[in-house]
Amino acid sequence: MKPCQESKERKCGSMDRREFFKKSFAVGAAVYGTSLFEWIDTVAAQDTAAMPDLVAIKNGEPDVMFDKAIEAMGGIGKFVQKGQTVVVKPNIGWNRGPETAANTNPLLVKRIVEHCLNAGAKKVYVFDHGVDYSVNTYKTSGIEEAAKAGGAIVVPSEDLKYYQKVTIPGAEKLKEPQVHEALLEAEVLINVPVLKHHFASQLTIAMKNLMGVVWDRGEYHGKGLHECIADFCLYRKPDLNVLDAYLVTMKNGPQSARAEDRSLQKTLLLSRDIVAIDAAGAKILGMDPEKILHIKLGHEKKIGNMNLEGRNIKRITL
Fold this sequence. Notes:
Elements: H1 18-24, H2 38-41, E1 54-58, H3 62-72, E2 85-90, H4 106-118, E3 123-126, H5 134-140, H6 143-150, E4 153-154, E5 163-165, E6 178-180, H7 181-185, E7 188-192, E8 194-198, E9 202-204, H8 206-209, H9 218-223, H10 225-235, E10 240-249, E11 262-271, H11 274-284, H12 293-300, E12 313-317
Helix pairs in contact: 3-4, 4-6, 10-12
């Protein structure tokens, strides 16, 4: 599998400094009156020595927050073993820069890749089959440069030859999608969505982020968006979900948000449970998880648990 090559016809400016990323995310960030952590304080979480069901951390930079959050989960070694092949799946769907929060934070992607390789991963692939042309989105988002700097192999997604048909047992709508070969090869899947409002699905978080590993995104819309989002999780659930809520698109998403629609919150969530992290993300956006159909279906299909009450939630404030 070859790394993604730069298009001669489509070139974007490089992003070569950590300070650029940090300053970019501060541009145009709106201030919202309600803290994103207030919902956590209403949950009667258990305090145990076991691995948390959910880690919620705030007030740090993306890479530092991941360091602290994965430590609270017991370290990356709980998820990645020596010699394994890993897919780190960010949202790289839009040809927009880091300051827009349309895609996952590049610093976060880089640090996750570094942790995986430090744990002894044989290879770490990064890719996304997004809406815009990926040769552009990989560069404009800053993710290609950041992922490669961390040691990842950034693979192309724009050709059907990279996809193979699979069968999803128990699926009602999405029964035989074509899935990227990098995911089929990988022993570990780390799902790294960015938290955003979405005009079609109400929100886009961890469950919907897996839409970027299939070839025919239109099949989701034609057969039932929410149902297909849930169906795919029957095929492959991530080993770890990392929700980027550093700069949050509160409305007019997924990629048309204005400066006043974005909120700089410096927050990160981690969970093995893809339904739980989506439920938490919904609450952050001020939505009821039970009213988001794909979250409700994920719970009903026993993909995960949308109920946060009584769960082991670790809170960290930097």
